[in-house]
Write a structure and sequence with these properties.
The protein has 349 residues and is mostly beta strands. The protein folds into two domains: 250 residues, Jelly Rolls (Sandwich); 83 residues, Immunoglobulin-like. It contains two helices and 28 strands.
Length: 349
Amino acid sequence: MFHWLSGGCAATRFRHPAPHPPIGAVRTGAVHGVLATFLLVFLTVARASFGHAQVPYGEYENWTGSPATYENPMQWSSLNEVHHALGYPEMTLTKSADALEGNYAMELHTRRLCYMDSLVCYLVPGVSVIGELIINPSDLSIFTPGVPFADRPETLNGYFKYFPVEDDSARIIVELSRAVPGGEREVVGRGEWAYGDLMPQYNFFNIPIAYSSSANPDKLRIFVYSGVRNQEHPDPYPIGSRLLVDWVKMGPNVVEPPVGLSGPAPEAGLRIYPQPARTGHYLEAPQSGQQLTLECWDLQGRLVARQAHQSAPIAQWVDWSGVAAGQYRLVLRSPVGEIMGTAPLILQP
């Protein structure tokens, strides 16, 4: 949701444990006021702000708005409202049917936007934030309060595809904060992820959250960018970068487990044998009484195969006969995407 503030509003100040690396900058050049100032303020604010509770609507199946104008994921906001109000025909956030699971994913586009009839145009990254995006019309400053959140997860993780242009890179920032006396907010934990290579199939991202305080947070902020190139750009220009994101969750840390085990070995909640295996193996997993999902990832972080797994009190046979020999990591997920366990897997010819 986006809205303008009525009257003045003092921006909430944040105490940070250390300066944030720059996300991007706008070269205003011969400024045509509103758009350049808006973009500069937005990125300045983003640069300065930035069982487990879960990310609201991180599966991107529910959307608000109208396909005839613009849409946003439920409880997520973007610059679409501003672009629509200024008469731009193309939005920087769209609903994509190219989803990892379910029907939809969130797709962010870096667009070329020109202010009204001005010849000054800009590359504007697609940006999405969780919760409201509030703009003060008196100075075009932006306030993003985030959403209530009181847990201390180890990571923010999910799946993405990325189609960069030139030297662009996608960026995701997660921040947990709490209210402190004096109307300020203290950053409790923060994580950042950047990626600049082509990734045409869904891949897993895992963002460790570094905590600078032992206090519990009360708010969560997430910023998702399709790129960091945000500058004045004359014709001709390349089509902007695209980032697809799906199934975003909070969870435990996912690390590359050791490989080369010679027998049954428990690893982060899972037990598989024989190890190494040929076409399959037995799996012992935490009992939940639910229909789970078992994923097989290679050591380059690519999702190779996925299958349903029914929780049971005894070991069950898992068939990977369609997977090539090699070293892999198994990830077991709950119906809402929470990671329930991981284990190494070696498949022999």
